[in-house]
Amino acid sequence: MIVAKSERLLRMIGGLGQALLSLLFWDTVFVVLYKVFHWTWLGSDSLPLGSFGTIIGIIVGFRNGSAYGRWWEARTLWGAIVNRSRTFARQVLTTLSSEQAAGSQEQAEVAAVQRELVLHQVAYVHVLRQQLRGLDPVPEFVRVLPQQDTSELARTKNLALSIETRMSAQLIAAHKRGWLDAWQWQAIDQSLASLMDSQGGLERIKNTPMPQQFDFFPRLFVQIYCLLLPVGMVSSLGWYTPLGSTLVGFMFLALEKIGRDLEDPFENCIHDVPMTAIATTIEINLRQMLGETELPAPAQPVDGILW
To answer: Is the pLDDT of residue 190 over 80?
Structure first.
């Protein structure tokens, strides 16, 4: 996600360079044919560019609204994961307990299980972001839980789901040992269920792209409109047609590109939801709850980009 307050124009319009050069070339050729070769029949003041532009603007705006809706839903779901991760860690650390005296072996076992569950949640959020980006999630699991056996988990198709399943099994075992009563178990299980709901929503966005019509037709209409711009401008702007036409075309091309940039928020590009920063925030919070003092540094923008 671009976070720089004064962003460079070249980055913001990245990918439009070739289209703008092509449009400028077309406008220049058009005005030369009109002014030098006197092909005056090419120009038409009656061409309703304003009406065309309004209609295309509505279409592109509708498409961009849908694309931003996908991006914002992804960010909202990650926000829910932040809150539910904190809630889960709080529940584990405050409700999981033994009736044995402090300092007993069972109390030590409870503390070990608490720590393991919280670290599994840390691993879960990092694994989930890697899966959504289509990257290998196993190294993140090993980084957080280096002592855990990953041979079985590495073979699973959905490592994040397997981590949550393992956590659920650990909580069931704790309940059977009397470390959790039925109400406490249900409350923690509800937190896990909420995390699964958020993961399902993120996977739905990832696995359900925008319909192809939403990509194809707005882009086609914008391109046709850009080609028609010099037709309606050349008689009034003359030699300034390339300037005016390219400027107006740039506006429409940029608006169309906004939708394409936002419609897939997990493509590991500069416009994505900053999942690394969010997951790192969760890790810092949960490790603090464990009482750790050596914490990872908060994610910082790199060249104006927060990943």
So the answer is: yes
Three-state DSSP class for 302? strand
For 298, the token pair is 């908060």
pLDDT of residue 61: 93
Residue 58 has pLDDT above 90, yes or no: yes
- Examine residue 300 and state whether it is found in any structural domain, yes or no: no
Q: Is residue 270 part of a domain?
A: yes
Position 101 scores a pLDDT of 45
Q: Which long-range contacts (CB under 8 A, 24 or more apart) does 192-198 make?
A: 192/88, 192/164, 192/167, 192/168, 194/80, 194/84, 195/81, 195/84, 195/85, 195/88, 195/124, 195/164, 196/161, 196/164, 198/77, 198/78, 198/80, 198/81, 198/84
How many domains does one find in the chain?
Answer: 1
CA 23 to CA 25: how far, in whole Å? 5
Q: What is the pTM of this model?
A: 0.88
